[in-house]
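Lecture notes, unit on protein representations.

Consider one protein chain, 263 amino acids long.
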Amino acid sequence: MPAIALTEPDAGSDAAAISTKASETDGGWLISGEKSSITFAGFADAAIVLVRTGGPGAAGISAFWVPLDTDGVTRSVYAGVGGEIIARGSIVFDDVFVPADHLLGEVDAGFAQAMTAFDFNRAVIALSCIGAAFESLDETVDYANTRHTFGKPLSSRQAITQQVAEHYAKLHAARSVAYDTLTLADQSAKHTTEAAMSKWMGPAWSVDAIHTALRLHGWSGYGSDLHFDQRLRDVIGLEIGDGTAEIMKAIIARDLFGVPTHR
């Protein structure tokens, strides 16, 4: 099981600002620095580690394959609101030696490799969230058909049904954008903008849908006997991973206007 180690305590959305470094030595490289908020940090066998091998900015970053049982590697798992199964945590490298053939691709070319992977994965994250939201809405439809108040099922009340209908429509639209992203990826076509759109809409609209499902179930939805609490906590975490909504909108605007709008 591999992890992807890019984020650092002082470099999250500004991924090109990483400071973990690799220095050449006899037969390989020595890696030093800390990676934070890494998915699978607690149990991954190895990590694709993005490090600085050259000057500042994206042009000086390389990628290495690092077995995590190597001397000098320590790691810890964070306590968090959700996402317990992914064992998110930190990985610290203290002069960790990796052989020269563990370099992935060319020296100083790792950032472009990582961003290509992020574009694809953003659509996958969106679909993961959307799946959890659709499941929550399906359960709410069943509940509204069987739960009676004041002598009538909840599904007879427009105030209930229109909320669910709106969420279904928005999730369908977000899913279509994610599928468009993956279609473009299959065609080796540029899909950065579409990926950003799906990563923004999918998690955000899924959070809203799951929250509505929880609320429409009343106190039973608020309890842990059902799954809304876990879904809500986990999907909120996926609003952050691989780029926040603010970063996604900046990417979309950059491609529309042709300027780095986040500055």
